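Sample pair:
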Amino acid sequence: MAKVILLLIDAVGFDAAVSCMGTLEGYVEAGLARRWKMRTELPSLSAPLYETIHTGTPPVVHGIRSNDYVPLSKGPHVFGAARAAGKTTGAVAHYFFSELYNRAPYDARRDMEVDDDSLNIQHGRFYSEVRYTKANLHLPSEFDLFTQVTVMIDRHAPDYILLHAFAPDAVGHIYGGDSAEYRHEIWAVDNALAETLPIWREAGYRVLLTSDHGMTSDGRHGGTSDVERFVPFYDVGNPMGGADDQVVSQLCVAPTSLALMGVRPPREMTASPLASA
């Protein structure tokens, strides 16, 4: 049984991760992490797949169909199942996660920073993106997001923490998924991870990393192409390190996260966990 951090790095395709994330690939080569190729559900859009990652069900089942309307999740989901099992939860993430699992609509004054045991995400630090263009791109830095998780561990030590980094998606929409700018943002996440991963592991966390979807060269996602649908899934701390050559389903993320915490996945999560503690 372990505590779990799930890093959800927005819009990072499988090939982009393997080529740009040298820290994680180093852990894989050293046998300290296992990596799978993961196929996402459809549509390959953020809010529907945030929900898929936390409910283990596809959008056609859970009902979040686009980014245009983000209601409170009908569940069951990882945050709720963890709390029901007596676990504590936390997140440093885009405000969509507050809307999905705490309260909707999002009210920044009320919801941006919460420490409330009655909520599904009991310890939450949420951000919103400014409308982004090439001339006006303001996003939380990877260093700040990762540090917030470390501080949350120091203060509250939640059993499950979601860290959601948004920058690769924003930059990919502007410059495209085959641009130097996009690749730099993925590297920046990996670079922040290089400093924090040993701290989190020492604190007893199993660290998972995946993405909601990839990004095309013309700066879009939502469709069915391989670059949009194939993403990585890393498990740092898996006793069977190395690269697994099988393609796995995104429906596995939720039951894997719960199984690692020693929590039985709800019956709606029909996919098998990829690993155990």
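The longest helix spans residues 180-202.
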